[in-house]
Write a structure and sequence with these properties.
mainly beta, six-stranded antiparallel sheet, 6 strands, globular
Length: 110
């Protein structure tokens, strides 16, 4: 796990800021979501009706083909035990710049 850029311990860093740092550094994050610990490649943070969401690629998911690979959307309120990993990632080459819904607002993106 990479140390936070500010020198604070990971428990002191708000989740939103931790994810923005991971997106900016293009680092995988380890999160606990729906009872499972997974690593995600965070591509963007966005807001929907006042709630924050993370668009991220799950590199460990079994995809049928490279063409099927896409971002999943995770509500930040459902993410726990988040930590920035040492491992970096390359953004999906065919990333659609459009947000999932028209009313969504971009907060930060790769």
């Amino acid at each position: 796990m990479a140390p936070p850029m500010s020198g604070e311990s990971p428990a002191e860093i708000p989740l939103e800021r931790l994810l923005i740092e991971a997106i900016a550094l293009r680092r995988l994050v380890s999160v606990h979501y729906n009872g499972t610990t997974m690593q995600l490649a965070p591509h963007r943070l966005f807001s929907r009706h006042g709630e924050l969401y993370l668009s991220a690629f799950n590199p460990n998911k079994n995809w049928r083909s490279d063409e099927d690979r896409r971002l999943g959307h995770f509500k930040l309120a459902g993410l726990g035990e988040a930590a920035v990993c040492e491992e970096s990632f390359e953004p999906l080459p065919d990333l659609d710049p459009a947000l999932p819904r028209e009313e969504d607002e971009l907060v930060f993106s790769v």
